[in-house]
Each structure stands twice: as structure tokens, then as C-alpha cells.
Amino acid sequence: MSSAVLSKIMAENAQKTIFKECPQFHNSQCTFTIPPCVFPEPYTAHSARLHLARVLELLRASGPQDALKEGRSPNSSLPNGKSLKRSLSNTKTEKNNQDGAPPEYLLPGSSERPLMALLPHSSQPEAPTYLRDLSLSCWNPAPGHRKLQGDFLYITVVTMEGRRFDITSCPKGFFLNRSTEEMFDPRPAQSSPVCHSLTDLLCHISPAFKQTLTTLKNRSQLPPVEVMPTPYHTLSWLGPPCASRTHKNTFSRLGVDEQSGTEAPDWNEELQAARDLPQGSLEERLQRDRALLQVNCAFVRAVKQGAETVVDSFVEPVNGNPEDPAFLWGGLFMSQGAASTMFGGERGRRAAQRLELKAVQAYSNIEGLHTLPTAVVDYRGVRLSAQGLAPGLEGSEGLLYGVNAGPQESPQRRRLLELLAQAAKSLSLQRHVVVAPNGHKVPLFTSVEAQGLLGADGRFYILDVFRTFPADANFCQEVETECWPENYHSDSGFPKSFPHGLFLHEIKHFKLSFNSFSLIHTIIYYYILYLIYIYIYNILIYLTNVCILAGDSRATKAVRAACKEVGSVSDIIFEMRFNPSVFSPEVSFPTSESKSTNLQERLLREAAAFIITHQIPAFVTHLLKNELQPPVMSLQGVDVPSLSAAVSHFLCCLLVPHFTPTPVGEETKKKSRRRGRGAGAPESSTPWSTLTGSELWNLVCQDAAETYNISDSLGSGPNHLVEHYSLQKLSLLREFCLKTGIQLRLRDYVFDNQNKAPIGPDDVLNIFPVVKHIHMPTVDASKAFSAAQNFIQKGLLDQAHEHLKEAAYLFGRVCDDLHPEACYCHSMLAKVAFVQGKAAEARSVQLKAVVISERVLGFDHPNTIQQYALLGVYAFAGGETALAQKCLLRARLLMLTVHGEDHPYTATLDSCLGLVLTGDQRGLFLKNALRLNISFFGPSHLHTALNQHLLAYWMCSKGDYRSAMTHEKEALTAFTMLGEDHPQTRCSKEFLCTITKQAVKVERSLRQAGADCTEQTVEVCPGARVISGIINLFESYKVKGKCLLISLSSLSSVSNFHI
User: Fold this and answer.
1) CB neighbours of 845 closer than 8 A, spacing ≥ 6?
2) How far is CA 668 from the centre of its chain?
3) What is d(CA 386, CA 376) in angstroms, rounded to the nearest whole number?
4) What's CA 362's distance to the chain center, in Å?
5) What residues have CB less than 8 Å from 296, skipping those under 6 apart?
6) In this predicted model, what pLDDT tens digit does every residue of 683-734 receive, in sequence order?
7) Is the pLDDT of residue 627 over 50?
8) Which residue from 718, 762, 772, 704 is spatially nearest to 741, judged by alpha carbons?
9) pLDDT tens, residue by residue, 172-207
10) From its phi and psi, is residue 220 left (phi > 0), alpha (psi between -120 and 50) or beta?
11) If phi over 0 gives left and psi between -120 and 50 gives alpha, with beta otherwise, what is residue 101?
12) 429 — phi, psi (to 5°)?
């Protein structure tokens, strides 16, 4: 292909294939020497810089804190890969589990939440040191007469022995010159060899470098999934604990990889060229999917860098509009968008940017219809829209579609209308007619703002699609209340006003993933399902009253009547469409369209009422707990030097009730007095520095009342949420940082001290851009994964296992397994293997799922907690009790940090820990799990029954048979719902009979022996029975041929709970 960036990406793909076969090439903890060439080719100035950049990348070996410094989510302290095998070989020799007893902060009832335990800080070895310094020399660039003699670069090296060398890069390679810090002398040093590889020369001048390089060659290699870079940046809200001392960058590139003379990429051309790749064979589709992913990843990285550059004021706007500045940087067009009063000012502007991205995602899958590469980035309180540069128009008739396109007729316009009609059908949008400003009637398949054009590259584009989705009539105050269902307005308070005018529904093809549930994606979906129910019901009612024969016209009448009843756009099939322009006050419809417009208004009112009266109550009932979203922080207008102080001040106001700020300059005076210096001149007061905790909470309550109609439930401060809703301040802090890109120092924070600020300016390490972008499909891998899920629902595990292995392979080909869907695929594959009795395979695959989840979703993401719990279950089933305990304790630590103890999944984890622990701690976790399960599910739920069953086993081991009988009777009552012949029911009956006999035996022995009998032999139930009970309970979910692997019983699944 002629595209430069795409060609580079294809080359990188080939290189990554080599890297996967030889992990030492990309493993930052391992190294390699640049292979010598038999006939080395001479360097050019460009290739010499590339070689130096490669060596620098090689020498920048990552330590345990490097990921945190860069704001990336690190791997946890749990050993992985080959190191895990060594760890397991050691843990198998442990005589008991007391050495690995849970710490106090992980025991039930503890309120301590230590952040220092979340991430590795000093437990892992430091990265190896090669050199003290390697950088470009101060004598660069080479003077003209030295360029004529072949000098490219001058490099300065300080070895571990403390010696300083200056190196010259030339066409033949690298050699030592005679320059010093004070004198420039480019002549070759005496007895200096010319080495084609820089690493060879470094080995020649530094024995320590040679030894370190040789040692690392023999180190075991980590799997590629642990060391390859993730496609997208996974933010870590916690940074290294000692960032100030670890900030030094030993190996500075100093412009090695800067290519200021190169032309900025044409991101649109790169994306469209990748989309135009052939799709005839599987191999071609995989190459296309990988190319699309790589282009989009490069685009997102550019957007992230562009946002930092623009917000930091390094780029001047290209227009003269201070209210809507636009910027060009790196082939990107970036703007904030105009704050239109029609759409609600600043809130409407932010909503328009978000909706534009979602609409571009919806249109991106339409073959033949193109959208520009688009992303939305939030950085320091500023939201920017970023797009690739649009191509020029093709001829004078480039604008082919839109309200302002004008009447025209051409083959290109007809083809564009065909594509838009296909898109409208896919998105359930109705074709409608509006009156243009010039009075002409214009048929549309989109919203009135959308424009379709033919680019200079010959492709059809659709732009300005932020109002693609229909309006939510609940927030259209001008809609007459009498057109709604009876008493709807008085009962619900709708319709009412909204802070901005872009209150739209999202229409998407609904895809319920086993790991996620999203309300906004299902609103219209469930309304359509509701209409389908009415449609089928009306047909059945009609047909049951008459005798219908083949070809009878009455059947057709029944279908037509049902279509009319539900508002179908067709009178012979069920087909629902929605008009995106209805309830738009600035849009006029011709009188000839009044019937259709009235029907669309009726449908949208019914959909809005259905949301309030049916869908949201059902959704809330489904959720056991609600989580509050953090407020949006704006840092616009804050000076960069005081940014960390502003952030820390805001967080203190948010988390500490009645927080009163220290007067500006007072803290500086105190520090100065401690250091023995004068206080100096006081700083001027800034608006943010005078904000108090009560003032901020009033603003939060005001915003909640305007947006969500929440008035009294927030109380007077965050302590009200803690007391009434069990909300953790630490959880709120974490969520706020992830939403805004803030990174805090890794240390323990205390929020109970009313006299001291819990977060200081030094605790705010960085603010990273948060980019929302288009998600590129992995077509064949997703199809295989969906097919596997269908087989699972039918109970065909062998076929599901094969399709899951195929999907895992395809994910690896496209994204090197570093993708959320790849994580879900591996997790499902491990579940199927576990059920099939392949414990070793389940454990191996699940370990990979844990690593993927940590790297692409985050070390403390809810999905990562799930993956750790499943790994613990599989390890325990395979006899690796020590590893199971580590995994489950890690999951509980993350769970307590993310949400707290008052959550149903905490009961799941405690049930698991009740199996792997011993002694009284086992009973402590089992009792806490029982308390939580009864609280959330009631005494007759299967989760509660399993807890009762496990507690009965533990009571038997303690000799308390009466309590064991009580718990087992409760368990049997619940298990009976599965059927009298169910294995779990039979197991419970047998166990109850056994402990009853044992209780009678013990009681008889005590009576015969009298008070002199102080000891009694207790028959401890074998652990195998416990595992059998777990597996039998899991088998209970195989009802009517449907094996719900997504509910791996109470002990090995969290898919029923969404954190």
C-alpha cells in the first residue's frame, strides 16, 4: 500500500510476529545484542538514529515502578508465568497455612483500607543497571567539515565504572573520539575499534556492561502477553510512592526519535485505506482487523499527545473565535465546539461531543459509508473533539446530502442515498421529510444537521451526526401532557426540563455480554421487545377466535392490524423505525407528513413512558446496590504551577465534610519557618483556594437536583452517603481519579481527621488525558466467541470448547490477546475446561485471563477481581491451596478497595476463603458470607444454602453437631427447590443423615462416659465432599438443556453481580 503509516504498521505487525516467537526481543526485563552482519551495510544518518533509538529502548529496562510512572496499570505482585511455577514449587512444601494467614485488614469487619498493599513497591527486585548515563553529546550537531567526513552523531556515555566516553556515529558504525566536556576533538581515540553495533562498543569499554548484558541473556523470558505494549493506555490512578526520587531519566533520547521534518499523518486516509483492505479470506480479514486496530491505536495516541499540547498552550488556534478555538496538530483537527444556547450552553456542547462519537461508532460499520476518525478527550477539565482532516470535495457537487445541499440529481447522489437508506434500516431510523430554510421539502434518513458528501478520494462521507438518535420525550416540556398515559405527569413528574437540549435515546443493536450490563443500551431495545410482545399477542388473539386455513386472507388482516397497533412502518412485517427530528423545535414538517409525524410522536411518548414506568424500575430491582457517579471537576483557568494544589484542595473539599481551606500563604509561611527562612511575600488569593467543603457539596447537590432530580438523598455531606448508603470515600476517590485522569501517590490516606487535609499537593503526581474513542471490531474472533456462547446455552460443551479455542487464537492474531473481549474469551474457555474436568487447562488459561485483565482493564477493575476469584477456585480444585489463598485474598483486597465489604460479591469471596483457610478464620469468613447472603438474597436462595452447607461442614470439624444440623436443614430446604433427585439435594440429605447419626452417637457416648469424658473423636468430613458439593451446585444450573456457565455457582462466578 502507498500509505506511509499503514505500511509502517504492517511492518510492525511482521516484527511483532517475530517478537512473539522470540520474547526477549520485546521483553523489557530481558535483553539481546544487535546481531552482527556478515556483510554489514553502511549506516545513513537516519538509520544511525534508528539504531541508537533501538539501543536506548533496549537499555531502558523497566522496573516495578515504571508502569506507574507512565500512568499505566501494572501487573500485580502475584507471580506470573515461569516465576509462578517456581513459586508453586515452594508453596507445595509448606506444612501448614498459618504462615499465609490473612492480615488483619482483610478480616471481616475491618475498616482499614491500606493502599500500600495494592501494588508492589519494594518487594520486587530493581531493574538491572547497564550504564550511568547514555545521551547525545553537547557537541551535536556535527559541524559542516565533519559531516563531509561522515560524522552523524556524537554520543556521551558514563559507564558503571565511572568513566566518561564520547562516541562518534559514522557510516561504518561507532568509535571512541577524543572529545571531553570542555574540548571538542572528533579524532578517533587511540586503539579504538570501529564497531558496527553500539552494544559491541559498550561491551568493549565497560566490563560491567558486558557482564550485565551476558547475565540477562540467560534469564527466563516472560510470556509476550505480559510485556507487549497494550493497544490503548490503561490508566492507573495510583503512582509510585517515591516519584520525586525516581523521576530521573537515565537514558534520555534528546530528540533521537524526533522527526520534525516529516509530514503529519493523514489519519483519515490511513483509516480508510485499512477499511478498504480485502476481506475475501480469513487471513485477509485478520490482517484487515489488525490494521484497523493498529491505525486506531496510533490515532488515539496522537489524540492524547495533541490534547496535552493544545491544553498546555503550545499550539495557537487557527481561527479567530475565542469562544470556539480550533487547532491543527499532528494531522488532527481539535476543537471544543461552540456552546450553543439552543442546546444548553456548556452542558449541551459536551453532550454533543459525546453523542457525535457514539453516532460515528454506529455509522462506522456501514459498508461503503465512511466516517472520519473521531475521538473525544478530557484533559484538565477541557473536553476536545479530535478528528482526522476531512478530504476535499469532489468537484462542484461534493455536498450531495443535507438540508442545505439543494436539489440535484446524479449517480453519486443516488448511490449515497442508497447507503444512507441501508444505515437508517440498521439504526432503526425512519425516512422523513422536513422543510428546509429556503422552503423546499427535503427527504432525510438522518437528523437535520447531518451532511453527506463525496470526498476528493472518491469515498462517501457522513458528517455532523450528533443528533442521530431520537429525542427522549420525557424532557420535552412543550409536549402536551394530555397526550401521555393517564396520570403519567402527576405520578412521575414527566415531562420536565433538562439542563441541555440533547436528551437523546441511543438505538443500538443490543448485545448482552456475560460480563457487563448497560442500561442506556437497552432502553429502546426493551421497548421494541415490548412492542414485539404486543404484536404477537394481537395476532394470536385474532387467530384463536377464527379458524385459519392456508392462504386465508384473514391471517393477512391479522398481521396488518397488529402492525398498525404497534406503529410498524410496514403493514406486512414488524419493523420499527424512529424519527430523529421529532420534538426538535427548530425543525418544521410539511402538512402532508402530519400523520407520520403524529405516529412518531406517539411512539416516542410511549417509549419515554415505558422507560419510566417499566424499564427503570425493573433495572433498579435487578440491581442490589446503586453507585453514585462522581461529579465532574473543571480545572479551566487554573495556572499550571498551582494545578496540583487545586486538585488536592478540590479532593479535600469533596471527601472531608466541613473542610475549611488554609489561608493562602499560611502553609508557605509554616514551611519557611521550619526551614529557617523568612516567609516572603504572601501569594494572592485564587477563586479555587477559597472553596470550602460545604460550598462544594451545595454545588454537587444543586447539580444533582437539576440533572437527576435528586434533592434530599445526598444529605449535608459525604458522611451522609457513608452512613446511609455504605459508600466508601476511598471508592469515591478512586472513581473520581479514573474519570478525570488524576494520578495520586501510592500511600495510605486517612479521611477521618477533620483538622488535617488528607491529600496534599505533593500527593497529586500527574493528570493524564482520558480519551474516548471508536472501538474497532474483531469480526471473526467475535463470531467464534458468540457461537461458543450459543453452544454453551444449549449445553454442548465440547463444541463450545472448540469454538472458544478458535476465538482465542483469532484474538491473538488480531490484538495479541491484549483486548477486553480476549480476556472474556479466555475466562469462558477456562470455565468450560473446568466443568469438563480439565483442571490444569482451566488454571493455565485463567492465569492468562488475569494478566490480560490487569493490563487492558486495570489492576483493580471489577473484571480483574472476578478473574482472580476464578483462578483461586481452579487452583483450589487442583490442589494448589496456597495459590488459591493468595488469589482469593488478592480479590478480597481489591473488592474492599473498589466497593467495600457490604456487597454480594464479598459474600462469594468469603465463601471461597472459607474453603481454603483453616481453623477459626475459616468459620469467620463463612459466617460473614452467610450474613451477607441472607441480607442480599434471603434465607432460601441457593447462594445462602451453599453457605449453610459449608458452615455445617465446618461445625462438624469443630464437633458442634447440633449447630451443623441446624445449618444443613436450612440448606436442604433450599436445595429441595432443585428437585428431590438432584445430586446436590441427595448430597445434602446424606450429609444431614450422617451428622444426625454422629450427633446421636456423641450424645450417647457422653451419657455413658459421664463428666469424665472430656474428649471425643470427631469424624471430619473429607474435603472431596465439599468440592463435590460445589460442582453439583454448579451442575444445578443446567436446567432444560441450558448450561449457564456464566454463573459458576456461588463460589466461582461473579457474573450475577456487577460491581
Assistant:
1) 808, 826, 829, 830, 833
2) 40
3) 6
4) 20
5) 271, 373, 773, 774, 776
6) 456 777 888 888 888 888 888 888 877 877 788 888 888 888 888 999 999 9
7) no
8) 772
9) 999 999 998 889 999 999 888 899 888 889 888 988
10) beta
11) beta
12) -105, 140
Residue with cell 444431614: 992
Sheet bearing 451-454, strands edge to edge: 369-370, 460-463, 451-454, 399-401
Distance CA 31, CA 553 (A): 78
Lowest mean per-residue pLDDT among 513-522, 552-561, 736-745: 513-522
Cα gap 76→903, rounded to integer Å: 23
| Whether the predicted model's global pTM rises above the 0.85 cut | no
Rounded CA gap, 781 and 803, in Å?
Answer: 9
Distance (Å, rounded) from C-alpha 970 to C-alpha 949? Answer: 8
CA distance 77 to 551: 70
Strand partners, 435: 441
How far apart CA 338 and CA 78 sit, in angstroms, is 49
Burial of 999 (0-12, 13-18, 19+ CB in 10 A): middle
Question: Position of cell 435487578?
Answer: 622
Task: Assess contact for 366 and 459: CB atoms under 8 A.
Answer: no
Which pLDDT value is given to residue 834?
A: 92
Q: How far apart are CA 252 and CA 374, in angstroms?
A: 33
| pLDDT for position 810 | 96
Identify whether 141 is preceded by a cis peptide bond (ω within 30 of 0): yes
367 Rama class: left (phi>0) / alpha (psi -120 to 50) / beta: beta
End-to-end CA separation in angstroms for the chain: 45
Buried b (16+ CB within 10 A) or exposed e, 1016-1031: eeeeebeeeebeebbb
Nearest to 214 by CA among 484, 30, 470: 30
- In this structure, what C-alpha cell is assigned to residue 846? 485463567
Strands (E), 108-265: 133-136, 153-158, 164-170, 173-176, 238-239
Residue 696 sits at the vertex; the CA angle it makes with 695 and 698, to the nearest 5 degrees, is 65
Nearest to residue 870, comparing CAs of 895, 894, 845?
A: 845
Q: Three-class SS of residue 644?
A: helix
Euclidean distance between CA atoms 225 and 816, whole angstroms = 7
Higher pLDDT, 483 or 974: 974
The number of beta carbons lying within 10 Å of the beta carbon of residue 758 is 18
| 912 CB burial (10 A radius; 0-12, 13-18, 19+) | buried
Residue in the block written with cell 471508592:
731
For residue 650 the three cell numbers come to: 478540590
Residue 58 vs residues 29, 164, 350, 1028: alpha-carbon distances, Å = 9, 20, 42, 51
C-alpha distances (whole Å) from 257 to each of 53, 54, 158, 176, 233 are 7, 10, 21, 23, 20
All three cell numbers of 337, joined, read 465546539
Helix, strand, or coil (residue 399): strand
The dihedral over CA atoms of 259, 260, 264, 265, expressed in degrees to the nearest 10, equals 10
